[in-house]
Amino acid sequence: MKAQQITIGMVGLAAAASFAATSEARLGPVFSLDDNPAFPVSSNPGLVPGYGAEDPFGIFLAPGLAPSPTLGGFGPHGDAFIFSPGPAVNVLPTIDTFTGLPWSYLDAYSNNSAYDVDGNVAFSQGRTFNLMFSVDRITQGISGDVMGEAAAGEQAADIFITTKPFKSPADFAGSLPFDAGYVGVLGAPTSAGPGSNRLFFDEDKDFGLIPGPGPFQPREADNIDAFELRNMDVVGQQVPTSNAYHSINPDEAFNKHLATGATLPYTPSDIYATPAFSPFSQLFAREHHIFGSGNPPFVADQGVAIGEDVDALVIWDADDFIPDVIIADGVDGAIFPPQPLVEPGRDFALFSLSPGSQILFNLNNQGIQVGPADVFFTDFNGSFALYASGLDLGLNTGGALEIDNLDALEVVLTGDANLDGRVDLLDLSILASSFGGVGDWRQGDFNGDGLVNLLDLSALASNFGGSTGAVPEPAVATLLGLGLLAVGRRR
């Protein structure tokens, strides 16, 4: 069969897909901006000045980084806001949601990835995901667009996507031992070795943010420290319309310790949940659910080891249930349930750790090369494992104070061209309309080689129906099979 015939067949496939497709459900993206470098606006007088999750001890860019300049117009709690991109290029972002009282330093943010945009459970076992991420203002990267963006004075508010897929985290839920701390690489290696990345969202063109002033001059640039593909506020009330999850900064945690006499569980590795239509956060998981009961607890402000600081986060909360019975703690309106809401072994998460996290020091001292560019997995049984090395993302890894640092994290199903949370006929239509040509992820190039071809069709086919975990619908499976069969005949 000739290439022209294959192309015509793909166009026909696009037409068939467009008739069967429903309206696109993409909502977002949204993000937060970092405001905790050299002079955090909410630090109490007398605290050691924090350098934020980017450079906790001021080693690399002393005397420290400036706050994201875009936050200047949003007041002292700008770091707690989740923003939507501005309505046009070079227009300031707008406030989407507030992450939940009383926080003012946000470090990580996630929706509930266990549910799709229609409220269906979507664990997607057996599927593959690509990782979307941002890096901090010190990171340079080892390949792909991260290095190129740094050389052009941009990157810290750019969003990148990996060129390789990873096994679904759902495949590992319930598999980790109880209370074992770090248990090594997650099962079989999740990828084949060092990988790369491609630029997906550009900070100024897509988000209206401020890039760096020049090559490798990041101090005055905006920095995205949390990222989510879904718009969490769909009714315009600046509160999430579905459950949201976040962690806080070490300075914020220490402030709460001072305010409460260290009687409440404020740590930078605890995870908090904000219920839908609520401005108040509740405790979701404690640090021992991730790192085990034998891990030293968070005890101090920056200037010494900061304990464990969860820096990027994607949450899967199996039952999505936050009870109405809560207990007020009397500090800034914060409220907590009697017990954390997490269900160990059922709920699970991907996360990264900030530079300076004590467990990174401990593991590297044992000869285990992990760092703040790595992505870890936990099912909250007191154990965690390496899910993807920074090398797999085109970043350097190893060392508790490594220059490369992952700052925000999101997952997208391989084949989800329109980022609506599912791989379906809409994505097939997009790929078909670009088949045989050049393109990026939005045109159906899922492996990052710049071409839309049978490799991408195969990736989409293997993940079709990924939002619900179902197998491909018979008619669609037949169409995909015919497309691959035609290529087999050509060969």
UniProtKB/TrEMBL annotation:
InterPro entries: Dockerin_dom (IPR016134), Dockerin_dom_sf (IPR036439), EF_Hand_1_Ca_BS (IPR018247). GO terms for biological process: polysaccharide catabolic process. PROSITE patterns: DOCKERIN, EF_HAND_1. Residues 410-473 form the Dockerin domain. Residues 1-20 form the signal peptide. Keywords: Signal. The keyword Signal applies. This is Dockerin domain-containing protein. It comes from Mucisphaera calidilacus.
